Amino acid sequence: MESFRSLDVGVIGARAKKAATNQTVTPFFDKLSETGVLFRQHYTPCVQTSRTLVTSLFGTMPSLTEWSALATSDESKLRMHGLPQILKEKLQYESVFWSAVNLRWENWSLFLAAHGFDKLLDENKVLDYLPESRRSALTEDDSFSWGRHDKISLEALEHFLEQRQGGSNGDRQPLFLDVYTISSHDPWVLPQSFSPSTNYSTFITEDNEKYLHALNYVDQSIEQLVTNLRRKGLLRNTVLLLEGDHGYGRMEHDDPTVVASYVYDEGSHIPMLLVADDLLPAHQKGMVVDDLTSQTDLQATITDMLGLRDFMQHGMGQSMMRRSGSNAVVEQASSGAWNASANSSVDAVTNASSRANAHTSTRPTMAPRSVLLENPFYGTTKGLRVGHLKYALYGSGSAAWTK
Predict the structure, then answer these.
(1) Which residues contact 250 (CB under 8 A, 6 or more apart)?
(2) For position 398, what pLDDT does the model report?
(3) How many domains are contained in the chain?
(4) Contact between residue 343 and residue 323 where contact means Cβ atoms under 8 Å apart
(5) Of 203, 208, 226, 151, whose CA–CA distance to 182 is shortest?
(6) Hey, is 9 helix, strand or coil?
(7) Within a 10 A sphere around the Cβ of 193, how many other Cβ atoms?
(8) Which residues pair with 292 in a beta bridge?
(9) Which value, to the nearest 10 degrees, does the dihedral of the CA atoms of residues 349, 351, 356, 359 take?
(10) Between 105 and 230, whose confidence is greater?
(11) How far apart are CA 101 and CA 275, in angstroms?
């Protein structure tokens, strides 16, 4: 989810304001979290999408240079091995990348095709899955500078999945689908038909109004998709992971040189929600995990859910199904809070595929987790979060910390 930061999500950073005002910018995400496992302390190590692409798919840290590795490197020389290749080699998955943007931007199309994706669908190809009557009714208002708006993209995605479901029954190739939304990318120009789905007037400031409207629009778009997929039975035997690619800090820190030079939670703290309607045990639906987790953990988590072992990869992440120990905090949202033991496990999906069972075991207690943060636009400044403390490391050699 593009630029989707935790600060404004009603079940994460905006919990106190939601409790005080009964308002939220993200009503559907909030409601959906009651049916899945919500990771409330989830961070991206970077604040630019091309870098988070390699972080989430391959579990690696992004390049710490002014330009991303995708923009500056020959795609064949990166030679990264991660989710698309692993799922294909181990379980014969088809890998599809879906984003209604120009995939030539920063060499995405070349990189993705060279790193395991079988099919790439961009701002033009997604339209192939819309009914002709719908395509002919599209106007300029359904797009903006970055691509097709999310309601168009996700409506097309619904038809794509429906057509795929109608293929060879029972024998379909398993699917890994990486979907990027775009409508919450600045400059936050929405269709004229947009109307907020709920009242969140107390959240709005002069600086964030357009951004919050864009978040609400994305929330509406995801609601339309998930509701229709559930109604049509297209989320059976499916694990759905919703994650922000990065946040956005310029509304609160409006000096561009400061924004570029520091790592703020507004830019690095992102939502992460796991939903698996028929695979997640009832007692784990509505679970909230407050362990520190990172975008680099996505690859390790998915392979762990599928019980995969002995594969080549370049990731540095840890499975989010494995408790981190002394900073473990778990809540059961629907029935009050409870504490997890130091070496308990969050085996969130007990059977993520009919072909591979999730692995469960007792884990040893580990030291408190730390996650590395960085802002690429001035690469000399880095951040390190350990529990509730964040350390800023400057190119001069000085350091500072904050909660």
Answers:
(1) 256, 259
(2) 55
(3) 1
(4) yes
(5) 151
(6) coil
(7) 8
(8) 41
(9) 50
(10) 230
(11) 26
Tokens coding 107:
């060499």
CATH of the domain at 222: 3.40.720.10
| 383, part of any domain | no
Residue 246 located in a structural domain:
yes
Residue 244 forms part of a structural domain: yes
* 159-207 confidence digits (pLDDT tens): 999 999 875 544 578 999 999 999 999 999 999 999 999 999 999 999 9
**Full residue range of the structural domain in which residue 261 is found:** 6-369
CA 287 to chain centre: 18
Per-residue DSSP letters for 158-205? HHHHHHHHTSSTT-PPPEEEEEE--TTSTT----TT---SS--GGG--
3-state DSSP call for residue 389? strand
Both tokens of 344, joined, read: 């308990």
The model's confidence at residue 356, banded by pLDDT at 50, 70 and 90, is very low
- CB proximity list for 123: less than 8 A, separation 6 or greater: 100, 101, 102, 143, 147, 148
User: What token pair was written down for 380?
Assistant: 């000399």
User: What is the torsional sign of CA 43, 46, 50, 56?
Assistant: negative
Helix axes 49-58 and 298-305, enclosed angle (nearest 10): 30
For 17-60, the pLDDT digits (tens) are 999 999 999 999 999 999 999 999 999 988 888 888 889 999 98
Tokens of 42: 């989830």
The model's pTM is 0.86
Quick one: tokens of 81? 């091995």
pLDDT at 365 exceeding the cut of 50 = no
pLDDT digits (tens, 9 = 90+) for 249-307: 877 876 656 655 567 888 889 999 999 999 999 999 999 999 999 999 999 999 999 99
Instruction: Yes or no: say if 33 and 273 are a contact pair by the CB < 8 Å rule.
Output: yes
φ/ψ of residue 15, rounded to 5: -60, -45
**Domain assignment present for 392:** no
The sign of the CA dihedral 95, 98, 102, 107 is: negative
